[in-house]
């Protein structure tokens, strides 16, 4: 699906950005709730199997064991997250009952703020906490990857996002179909984000994250306070857009969008530059005339976003926050080489700080994130920092198609992904009592001794 012209993207990209021409196509409905429930029952079954295998009395013969499970189930399953009532949907009509309302990107939505507010009023158990609620959306194509290890890599990238969401209590939606058949590749996220906004009136923020981006700091959380007056947040550098007129002055592969009427209107205008729209060709010309470093003729979502920020400041730009203070997403080439020394710096802090060596339940991990911050005041944030980079984006690697930028070898992409994903996985596994000693050794872990790293790891070669 890459045209010869688009192949410029692969060879010319020098910046974090444009990730993927072949990136997203879309669709299966997987709520995180479903994943969570499936995960819970899988571990339950596993525990059950172990117990039945190793203990001679049947579990039912062990009253404390079965009572423990039962009471835990009563506490955590039916009530759901934070007391949300998932079995309560009163009969009074809401926007869902309006036959004119459409989830498709082509049809305009009006008065969405009122509609959403009315829904929340009728569902009070979801109204509490709605102001900060985040739902992550990501996805990949509907068919198997061409790259033989592509589907494995996508699975690992997805696991990374599920881990991050579980740790912070966010829901996640993974889409694998094109909701608008002509909106291929990087255009596919717009119809998906719109549909998700309608499906999740309880969420204030929709966080689109490309399939080839990985969280590499599992503790860091978005500084939402900073974005109070804005409706869209992207990683970007205002001077590169406004002065240099560079289409790589921002990255459209990761963004945070408020679930509100402004966003519905904005996406309508943004999507009007897409391949399904009558003026697609015209927009390709305008984008290339405006952003001289854009080498391929087709209109693309990232240049479209840069265009609206540059030319429609009053109408849109003032509500768009260009985040450049931390790795809202960061270019993997700049990041991966630093992960070993960052690991050493963090291990050094743990050796000095007893509180960070204390074992704890994953659910209460955010309180340890705060302890980390006390030790990271001098670490800095972006390039040159020794803080864990928040998100590492494998722009140009194309894990699914394998059609990576010719600037680097496929092998360097796949290895860098293993390093970043294992670096992240170590932060997760730590709370399960294990660690990958070698970031390039995906399959092997060692058990962590009590009080690690004040005590040493035993066994395994590095
Ligand atoms: C959910 O709402 C239903 C209907 O009002 C109610 O019967 C039920 O007790 C509620 N469940 C919880 C967990 O609040």
From TrEMBL:
Signal peptide limits: none
Membrane topology label: Single-pass type II membrane protein
Molecular function in Gene Ontology: galactosyltransferase activity
The UniProt record lists the keyword Heme: no
Matches recorded under Gene3D superfamilies: Spore Coat Polysaccharide Biosynthesis Protein SpsA, Chain A
Any one GO cellular component localisation term in the record: Golgi membrane
Transmembrane spans: 33-54
Keywords, comma-separated and alphabetical: Glycoprotein, Glycosyltransferase, Golgi apparatus, Membrane, Signal-anchor, Transferase, Transmembrane, Transmembrane helix
Subcellular location: Golgi apparatus membrane
Family to which the UniProt record says this protein belongs: Belongs to the glycosyltransferase 34 family.
UniProt protein name: Glycosyltransferase 7
Origin species: Coffea arabica (Arabian coffee)
